[in-house]
Amino acid sequence: MDLHNKSNLIHLCNWNNLENVAIEHYHSINNSFLINYFTIRKVQRKLRNILNSIELSSSQFIGISSNIPTFCIPTLILGIISSGRAFVYLSEESQHLLLNNSNLNIQYIFLPQDFSKNIGDKVIKKFIMHKKTIVFMRISKNNLQYHQEINSQNTDNDFAYAITTSGSTGVPSIVRVTHASIVSNILDLKRILNLKSTDKIAHLTPLTFDPSIIEIFLSISSGGTLVTVSDNLKNCPHELLMLLHDKRITFISSTPSLLLHRWSVPNLNSTLLGKDSHLRVLLLGGEPFPNPRTILKMKHRENYTRIFNIYGITEISCWASINEINFNYNTANDDNDFNNMIVQCNKLGIILSATLFQVKDLNDDGIIKEGKGLLYIGSNTRICAIDNEIFSNLNPPVFRCTGDVVTIDKNGELIFEGRQDCCVKRFGKKIYLNQLECHLKKLNFIEDCHAIFNYSTSTLHLFFTVLNNTKQLSNDENIILNVIWSHLRKLPPIMHPDYIRCLEKFKVTEHGKICKDTLRKLSAVKEYHNDIGNYFESIWKNHLPIIIDDKTTRFVDTGGTSIIALEISSKLTDIMGKDFPLLIGMLLENKTLSECRNYSSSSQLSILKNIELLHLHNLSKCIDGSPTLFKYISNDDTFVSVGSHSGIICTVQISNNKTWKVKLPDRIEASILIIDDFKGIVGCHDGFLYCIHLMTGEIHWKFQTYNIVKCLAVLCSQRQNIFFGSYDHYIYCLSIKKSNGEKLWDFNISEHVFSDLVTINNKNVQKDNYDGFIIATKSGNVYRYDFINDYVDRKLTFKINCKSSIFASPWIDEKFILIAQENGELQFFNLNNGESLLTFKLGGECFSSPVFHQNFIFVGSRDNNLYILKTDSELCQRDT
């Protein structure tokens, strides 16, 4: 590796003024010391010589213990990367994960002498650095095997460091970050922010979060001063604020939540964002930009700090775009202007160098140029390796999904809308949690807010914090809640939360982001089985204006609607496990709170819980496919398996809740076909049909089609071949006899196949001695094909043209086929010749697959009804 190449971090170091202060460290406000650039470079060279003098075998990544003082970290980083290796910061939370990761193969670590007995095996070198004794040690890890394939692909180390994602969207991933990925960020930001040797950059971001690396190298590359503080000082917000203000800090980066968590709006207004502040730049990133009105209140009118909304993902470390926010104090209280301010604040702004943005349609993954879609960030050079990926196998450009929904406006500008998972289904309709949050932020006393949908209880919770002056104006939370509810009623009823709650502060994670796990715990509904009346009253007050101690208030008079009545009744039923059949009628008849409360309480003695939630298994995204139940003769246990849009397949052993999760590269909508030895066959949105081991994740084989695969693969009666359809308009027959997925044949029907194929076994067909299958297509056609010559070929027996699209899977019996069409028509056809036998019209559209039992038919409709139909015996016996 060429260490003098411009794409290497070490090349960015500014050694022009060695007498300048490189690090200014504070143990406390009155206890500090300075380290100049001469000392940094001297120790860095010493470390490089130590590392280069030792044969470190295949180890590319060197660990840095979190117990090493912060002011020593930059020098250690420079020493490691100047030797041609990469560093990994080992926090207490991530240490086990990182040390036991075979892709990193961490065999050596720097740590303080006091901690060396706890982790090391052999001391390589002990030395003094910035008055601290540091030990370089080999780690005892005899049980780990390194992936030689990965090592052999990187004889020159492309990587600068490794870091974990926050895990806020699932299991944390380990990202190996290349020099090329981070260097362009440093150069761009140094230029955009006009950083110079006179700048003092606060190093407050945890080293587990990659913006911390930006802070270090922005300072070193500009020849400025990096200001570090002790953990004790970080934990004293007021003292820290005074220090940053008094010591004339010019640059701070933070997440919005951490900024608001540490300091109140008035305190910021009089210090860092006050009239006499020396702060030139405030970077806010890692989360959605805060309420613009909050920023206006914390920033003095005569303050000239430049505030930026910066955006990026760890998978392409670190930042991808930047937008400078300019505020207009004169129009802040106008709703229309406020909406424009939100749009301006949420624009992603300038795309940084060597970075590509791509927006895909939310439904079909096609790239769009205008409208709403899912954002992907890519690059030809800023490429990082994630988890088990082999860096040399990543062909540029490499794009990573952000999980964020954006809108491209008519000018081509990208506007952040929210996380993809902020869209939830409530009462069968989609709602966007960020729209609810945005609406609440229009109230001028709201500091911050966050909405959580609790899937286990189907409840919508809205948490918020208020500005300090609001608390002083009113100590009565009910008054605040009344104002909020009055404001929320401007939204459609479907978006009204079940619960709203005022918090003192939002708890933040190690990375400085709002801790969603804490909010989910707070959203867990309490058990009210012993006091139904109080619980009913709390639901009422969460939906309607609160009139303190007035039980005579009436439902309709206070703004009650049929939807609110349904929500109150449904909520009470969900928690109590029983129906309250008269409640909706009483509410709509304008009964009083007291009357409705007494009715719900009178039913208390007859409560019987009839269903119990045993387990929840989070698959990260929505689940469209039906779960597959299966068991083997050799094993008495029953298992269930299902896939989700995240690509995760979860298999659960029902008797003991033992769980296995494996992952495919793209979303899964189909159900899983189970064959022998825990092998599952399932289609994926990447166009492949996979045969995967459901416990280990080993892919036995995969077969490529040319579009997404949504339908369930089905077996022939001899269990040697499978059949499935793809959105590429083809039907495929694969052999699983030799466990290789070999294609026997395919044919083009020129139509999308959404519903599952249905096989016809010879035991059901008296006149034929071979198997066949039925296909129903999105275009409304139904085909019957029969196999000949031992599955080597097939023939078209008949084709039926229906009036409407078909999404439901056909049902076949011994004599007929039942087809449910999108327009609500159920149509029976003769199985042998396709002749139309009978038609029945449902009251709404139909996407539900019908089920037939004896002479009963069960099917659901979009008119909210489950239909149970009975056929006469003539249909069941009819033959030709």
Blueprint of the fold:
Elements: E1 21-28, E2 31-36, H1 37-52, E3 61-65, H2 73-82, E4 86-90, H3 95-99, E5 108-112, H4 116-119, E6 120-129, E7 132-139, H5 148-152, E8 159-164, E9 174-178, H6 179-192, E10 200-202, H7 211-222, E11 225-229, H8 231-234, H9 237-246, E12 251-254, H10 256-262, H11 265-269, E13 281-285, H12 292-298, E14 306-311, E15 321-325, H13 335-345, E16 350-351, E17 356-361, E18 371-379, E19 385-386, E20 398-408, E21 414-419, E22 423-426, E23 429-432, H14 433-440, E24 446-454, E25 459-466, H15 468-473, H16 477-488, E26 499-502, H17 516-522, H18 532-543, H19 562-576, H20 583-588, H21 593-602, E27 628-632, E28 635-643, E29 648-653, E30 658-663, E31 673-674, E32 679-683, E33 688-693, E34 699-704, E35 714-715, E36 721-725, E37 730-735, E38 742-748, E39 758-760, E40 772-776, E41 781-788, E42 793-801, E43 811-812, E44 816-820, E45 825-830, E46 836-841, E47 851-853, E48 856-860, E49 866-870, H22 873-877
Parallel strand pairs: 1-11, 3-4, 3-5, 4-8, 10-11, 12-13, 13-14, 25-26
Antiparallel strand pairs: 1-2, 5-7, 6-7, 8-9, 9-19, 14-15, 15-16, 17-18, 18-20, 20-21, 22-23, 24-25, 27-28, 28-29, 29-30, 31-32, 32-33, 33-34, 35-36, 36-37, 37-38, 39-40, 40-41, 41-42, 43-44, 44-45, 45-46, 47-48, 48-49
Helix pairs in contact: 1-2, 6-7, 18-19, 18-21
Describe this structure in words.
This protein has 880 residues and is of the alpha+beta class. Helix 6 (179-192) crosses helix 7. The longest helix has 16 residues, at 37-52. The strands form 12 sheets. The protein has an 8-stranded mixed beta sheet with strand order 6-7-5-3-4-8-9-19. It is globular, with a radius of gyration of 32 Å. A hairpin with a 4-residue loop joins strand 41 and strand 42. Helix content is 22%, strand content 31%.
